[in-house]
Amino acid sequence: MDGFLKIAKPLPDYRLELVFQNGSTAVVNMKRRVKTLRFSRLADETVFASAKAEGDKVVWFDGITPFAVYCSELLDAMMMD
Predict the structure, then answer these.
(1) 76 confidence band (pLDDT: 50, 70, 90)
(2) CA geometry: angle at 80 spanning 79 and 81, to 5°?
(3) Which CATH number covers residue 18?
(4) For 41, which DSSP code?
(5) CA–CA dist 56, 34 (Å, integer)
(6) Does the structure show a pLDDT above 50 at 1?
(7) Count of domains forming the chain
(8) Tell me, what's the pLDDT at 71?
(9) Once rounded to an integer, what is the mean pLDDT over residues 40-57?
(10) What is the pLDDT of residues 4-43, one digit of tens each?
(11) Averaged pLDDT, 64-69
(12) β pairing state of 66-70 and 25-29
């Protein structure tokens, strides 16, 4: 199964647009989160811009090691804003 996430599109100012298989979209503001230990690897704009959808995760690559976050965690974070 490919999961339910179709596209993860990085947007300016550390926002991330998620497009789901059913056509729904969500925009997650990551600006505050990239200052936390959990998401600090994404503070580099080049790394943040490398976001790709893979099944039910968003994966970023810093040139050395992939960094993956499940959509559910991103959506939970969005709801807390």
Answers:
(1) confident
(2) 95
(3) 3.30.2020.10
(4) G
(5) 21
(6) no
(7) 1
(8) 92
(9) 96
(10) 899 999 999 999 999 999 999 999 999 999 999 999 999 9
(11) 94
(12) unpaired
Neighbours of 46 (CB within 10 A): 10
| Whether 14 contacts 31, CB under 8 Å | yes
DSSP string, 44-81: SHHHHTT-EEETTEEEEE-SSSEEEEEHHHHHHHHHH-
Q: How many CA atoms lie within 13 A of 35 on its CB side?
A: 3
Domain that holds residue 53: 5-80
**Closest alpha carbon to 40 in 28, 52, 32:** 32
- Measured CA to CA, the distance from residue 40 to residue 66 in angstroms comes to 13
Residues 23-29: contacts with CB under 8 Å, at least 24 apart: 26/75, 26/78, 27/78, 28/74, 28/75, 28/77, 28/78, 29/78, 29/81
